Amino acid sequence: MVDIRPFKAVRYTQKAGNLKSLITQPYDKINQDMQREYYEKSPYNYCRLILPIEENRYQTVHQRIYEWLNEHVLAKDDAPALFVCRQEFRLGGNNCSRTGLIAALRLCAYSEGMVFPHETTYSAPKADRLNMLRTIQKDLEPVFLIYSDPEKVTVDFFKEVATSPPDLQVEDELRVCHKVWKVSDPEDIALVQKALERKHLVITDGHHRYESALAYRDERRGQVDWTEDSAFNFHMSYIVPVQDEGLVILPTHRLLRRFELTIETIEALASFFEISEIDPTVDVIESFLREHKAEHAFCIYDGIKAYGLLLRDEHQARKVLSPNSSGAVRLLDVVILKDIVFKTMMKTGELKIEEDIVYERSTKSAMERVDNEEVKLAFLVNSISPKVVWEVAQKRERLPEKSTDFYPKPASGLMMMDISATEKL
Fold this sequence. Notes:
Blueprint: E1 4-5, E2 9-12, H1 32-41, H2 47-50, H3 57-70, E3 74-76, E4 82-91, E5 94-106, E6 115-116, H4 123-136, E7 138-139, E8 143-147, H5 153-161, E9 168-171, E10 177-183, H6 186-196, E11 201-205, H7 207-221, E12 234-241, E13 248-250, E14 253-256, H8 263-269, E15 273-278, H9 282-291, E16 297-301, E17 306-311, H10 314-320, H11 327-330, H12 333-345, E18 357-360, H13 363-371, E19 377-381, H14 386-394, E20 405-407, E21 416-418
Parallel strand pairs: 6-11, 8-12
Antiparallel strand pairs: 1-5, 2-3, 2-21, 4-5, 4-10, 5-12, 7-21, 8-11, 9-10, 13-20, 14-18, 14-19, 15-17, 16-17, 16-19
């Protein structure tokens, strides 16, 4: 069964200053420019913990947390609690909100059939996060998961909680407003625990953190005396129902650094796709993708021209796509793009992230990077729906890397969780 627990959150105090100058985007969304900007905002900015500039970063973070706790810049809550967390944001001219729960989630191996991944992970990021856990013994950022609540037990509970003023409210640099309500009433905690105990959970963001936490848990079990209540058996998690109307996935466009669009490539693509030249503008490209969202549609921009592509024949495509995945995964747009366009038509081979391929969530930014000659080609795609991610994960399938971009991200710096050997939940 799914086991969630309240925990004593470690949070910034008023002594740290304005929370707006302290919170950040998740560590894997922070580039070097953002890192410098965060450092300039405050000597206590959370970037100094999740992605420090200093070379000896694990020890640096360990020392900082120790100092900030001693200085009362950080403080641990006196009593354990769950937290209802809402993001309010604008998208496509509309006001949106997404509400979920921050809790300590018992770690389960994927083989146990309660928590499912949806993307492939890599050894280097996992080694980095594992080293951080070993050194600081804190969960600095939550793993983001989704679950299904067709009865809307938790959805209605979150709505009820959110009718009162939030305990914490802050707007980030993307103009997303984050609100947090503390839930400490035992009856409320029991209600949520019961509602979630038989659910399946799918990781949307934080696969590397989750798998690193599993490895850390197993290490600690061999090193210290522990019980099922030991905090390192859990990970701080942000859990959102699939039924939440504000659960949004943005497209992740693919940009190639070294490959060009030749006449031969276009001719090869024509054997699989209907190709039409379209105006090379953001509005026209986004309109083409939106109008063909129910089909397998792509756009290509090379800095001068733009093309719209529509897959002609799914049956023909299946013959080329990898047979190792289910039909549902093989016919996802990002898989068609990877297997047919890149590997088969363009002969790219395996593309290395940053060296060969980079990713952008914004059509405008993707096109600008082509215009600035940072990359040679932009492949613009539609987003995957949360329902598809949920269904694919339940089949124990994994999507290609960077297939999903759940937006917005939970802010980093709202709280952390102590997972030291003596901490119990």
